Input
Amino acid sequence: MFVATPSLKAELSRRGFRRLMLWSRGVDTAQFRPHQKPTHGEDTTARCEPIFLYVGRVSREKNVEAFLNLDLPGRKVVVGDGPILGYLRRQYPDAIFKGAKTGEDLAREYANADVFVFPSRTDTFGLVLLEAMASGLGVAAYPVTGPIDVVTPGVTGCLDEDLRAAALAALKLDRDQVRVQAMRHDWSRVASLFIANIYQARRATGFGKRLIKVRALKSMAIKPRATARPIS
Output
């Protein structure tokens, strides 16, 4: 059984699951990257102010309000859609809500920000963490399942029960080092880990040999002849 994080592996092991193997999620490091050029007409006049970014579903369980309530310098940007988007727009008029983004538009939002704030306490991984890190963004998050398995404190992000302190500390991280660490989750490396796990499982259980043997027998099998007489 493949699991995405050490925390999930430990939890399943405590519940009696066996033959657990780590296989992380991946990110497209060619699409999500730092230092993208602004598009024609993009506003860069306020770029001297830090931009704190949230990307994800705009719903109660994502705890977006914990981010929007922070006293931070610069601007807060929310990218995503969800059931409480309209409510948050009314409650937090100073924040910038850009709705759902995909492809290069989404990659540009990451690259233009300074810190990625991840306020959720209930995610088991958080793919957006990888997208942010691949874009060179330091992550600010709570020290909970998901971030504790993905973020390297002091290198790719800052984990603290004081989310504001984490966000301010993440401003000081080296974006180049964040990107270097994120490359460990490039899809080519994740695919290599998948293949390595398959070979390890085959050696440990003999499953691969049995599978080959079954396929060989099937290919050699002779189809049974009909024994019933035709109906006249």
